[in-house]
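Quick start: what a row looks like.
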Amino acid sequence: MEKKLYPLKFVSIASRRPWGGSALVKKLGKHFVECDEEGNETVLGEDVLIGESWELADMGIEDSVVENGWLAGNTIGEIMETYLERIVGEKVYNYYGRQFPLLIKFLDINDKLSVQVHPDDAVAAERYDQLGKAEIWYVMDAQPGAVVYAGFNREVSAQEFYDRCKNGTVGEIMNEIYPKPGDSIYVTPGTVHAADGGLLIAEIQESSDMTFRLYDWGREFNPATARKLHLEEAIDLIDYNAFDQGLYRKGPLWGEEASTHPCHKGECECGGHGHDEEGKVVETLVECPQFNVSKLKLADPLHIYTEKFESFIIYICIEGAASIQVPSFNAKGEECMESYEFSKGETILVPAEMPDFYLVPRDRSTVLLEAVTRPEEIMDEYIDPETEAFLEDEDYEGLEDGAFDDDDEPAGPSAASPLGFFGGPGFKMS
């Protein structure tokens, strides 16, 4: 008899970054363990600068491992190889193949995140046999003075941006956002971005870590902190227009007043909310070809039917705790409910083959992010064919090494591209 799939939880993977801090351990209660070549385990404490916690990753380097149920110990990649469309849904599988299409992270930005940009799917597939990287940042916590640099405060030229990266004045043309908890920023491919000052962020993105580092706030001038830059390689990938403020969404004032928010009564006219049939708050954060992300203020149980999504569903717990209740049968053939619990800082994957389930709050302040994938043909809307890929009088020796992620390592084995082919480790310049 074929075993039924169930909601999957995964072991968090720590990623050290020079701009990281201790918030992932202190505020989310993460327990990170590293193993050396001999298999000896070391618990990473608050003194270790951890910039990212990878919650669900199918990157071919260090894939997420299931921690619950009869699939425990298997990676997401191994599960995809076996269960295919049963995990992601037929439509998603036909588009992405065996590559799980989303990457879920938590970010602790305690110091200056490098000025960087990501390519879109079309460019990433053509040049590197990779997926591009669209992403959304949801702000879980923001210290006073914390800032997100997203795009430009005015239209700029490629030459001006290049010169400012070289002379250290690029911050003067960056659009500054001072976010509060509950805010979200949709970082489109081509948007130059950075951050600083104490931010705890939940990140939902395509299954890619293609990051082109453009400026590193002076770290590049110190041999002890210098990391590879990719300014010349990425110069034609950048959207040089002023930042579209519509990509920045300020969160509603839920907090302690959630119980009296007019959305609960179906009376809200604030414009940024939707409601399900029972009047519960459902806020759409982004709808794009790569993913849809919504925010749920879970005050009462919800009966979720997966057919309408045509996709797996990922839930990320931002506040409180919840459980997924799945109708089942016990050994005696009696109807029962199987419960899968998750709390703040945890992520759970609901396979597409599950027909329905109940989403139940375990805390009155429960807030979840819900992510699904609805693939469409993705067209490039911003790359200027007249932009020169390379600037005159510059030395481009070594660019054949390709792009690297934010740790100055190759961004990993190729993902399955939307075009249906696979690449090898690292990137290849065309």
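That is the whole record. The two ends are 49 Å apart (CA to CA). The first strand starts at residue 8 and ends at 9.
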